[in-house]
Amino acid sequence: MKKCKKTVDFIKDLYKKDFVALHEPVFIGNEKKYVNDCIDSTFVSSVGKYVDKVEEFISNYVGSNFAIAVVNGTSALHIALFVLGVDNDSEVITQSVSFVATANAISYTGAKPIFIDIDKDSLGISPKSLKKFLESNCYIEDNKCINKQTNKIIKACVPMHTFGNPCRIDEIKEICDKWNIYLVEDAAESLGSKYKDKFTGTFGKVGVYSFNGNKIVTAGGGGVVVTDDEKIAKRIKHLTTTAKKPHKWEYFHNEIGFNYRMPNINAALLLAQLEKLDDFIKIKRELHNKYKNFFNKLNIEMVDEIENARSNYWLNAILVENKEEWLECLNNNKIMARPLWNLLNELPMYKNCQTDELKNSYEMYNKVINIPSGVVF
Ligand SMILES: Cc1ncc(COP(=O)(O)O)c(C=O)c1O
To answer: Which residues carry this modification: N6-(pyridoxal phosphate)lysine (predicted)?
Structure first.
């Protein structure tokens, strides 16, 4: 494990630390000012100006007509699917290479996930595999995509931009459009990433970002849904705020809503972080280049942005043959490293879900290791 030892030294030298975490938040802007302002005003909870400011910032930044702030990325995905009418008569295509929240959000609606293989370079849904699956397993009736095996409607497809690296989202969109399937982008990890000069999260009917503590910018916990569709935006806002009809004092809720609104104090922290987003992306892209030069010399491949993509490089990843040995070596030497998530189709609650052969997913599961990627000065 000579290469691993060299890697340990390189990373410790980069971060000038004895223990290097996978990803730590960095607070160097207006975080304390905005959070204190929130506390002083007493508006720390479900009402306040920072929620509006975050929504305005994100819709301006990514160029979507609307942005709705919610409690986390999981609830953002759930509400996105819910408003598109995904229910227990539906199925939703996604990738087995993702954090469990992607499949969980699908399940909250009552729908079943179907897992399709990824491309090895982007780690996102493979357009070729998606097309092949639909052509061999589905047909269109009354403008709906019907799965021959289950007779259920495939209502949505949720590709994910893994570690911030954009997948081939334009090709995926074209296939979804052809099959009358809603495209919902899980851009939880990829705020600020672009594909063909357009921000990830803005290709589909609805897109979703996460602001968990480990993301490129954080709200402590939070999520945002973006869409260009006014009707959908209004419905998401209504449903995520307990479906209460505005009134001077009455508590009239016209349907079963959700308490998914982002608290103002989280929005205050997030606004300060968002002000630093472009600086963080610049630093992370420089960090990726440093890693790339280093691993090139060791003949170790990295996960890289594909052609036409501009990644935020939220997390860097290397491809190795002896994954367990690398994980032992790095972690034993106080360099936090983690494998790819266990494939979702291998988890007990999803093991009976329909899949294609997932060849690339298994191959990448056996090779990918995430290495420290926090903002470094
Ligand atoms: C791909 C992906 N989807 C969804 C989520 C869920 O976001 P949250 O943790 O904010 O609920 C995360 C991250 O946590 C994620 O990485």
So the answer is: 215
Domain 31-274's class? alpha beta
5: tokens are: 């030892």
Instruction: Encode pLDDT of 127-163 as tens digits.
Output: 999 999 999 999 999 999 999 999 999 999 999 999 9
Please give the pLDDT value at position 61.
98
Ligand 1 atom closest to 101 (CA): 4
Amino acid present at 274? L
Q: Tell me how far the alpha carbon of residue 136 lies from the centroid of ligand 1, in angstroms.
A: 31
Instruction: Give pLDDT, residue 47.
Output: 87
In angstroms, rounded to a whole number, what is the distance separating the alpha carbons of residues 300 and 102?
30
Q: Does residue 102 line the site of ligand 1, with CB under 6 A?
A: yes
Residue from 92, 210, 211 to probe ligand 1 pocket by mutation (most atoms less than 8 Å from CB) = 210
Chain segment 81-91, per-residue pLDDT in tens: 999 999 999 99
pLDDT tens by residue, 260-269: 999 999 999 9
Ligand 1 pocket, residue 183 CB under 6 Å: no
Verify whether ligand 1 is closer than 6 Å to residue 199 (CB atom).
no
The beta-carbon contacts of 282-287 under 8 Å, at least 24 apart in sequence, are 283/375, 283/376, 283/377, 284/216, 284/312, 284/313, 284/314, 284/373, 284/375, 285/311, 285/312, 285/313, 287/14, 287/313, 287/316, 287/373, 287/375, 287/376
Q: Which residue of 75, 123, 212, 273 sits with most ligand 1 atoms within 8 Å of its CB, as the best mutation to test the pocket?
A: 212
Average pLDDT over every residue of 23-51:
96
Model pLDDT for residues 311-339, shown as the tens digit of each residue: 999 999 999 999 999 999 999 999 999 99
Distance CA 23, CA 283 (A): 14
210 Cβ inside 6 Å of ligand 1:
yes
31-274 matches 2-25+277-371 in CATH topology? no
Residue positions annotated with a catalytic role: 215
Please tell me the CATH code under which domain 2-25+277-371 is placed.
3.90.1150.10
Q: Where are the domains of the chain?
A: 2-25+277-371, 31-274
**What is the best residue among 189, 225, 338 to mutate for testing ligand 1's pocket, by most ligand atoms within 8 Å of CB?**
189
pLDDT at position 328, please? 98
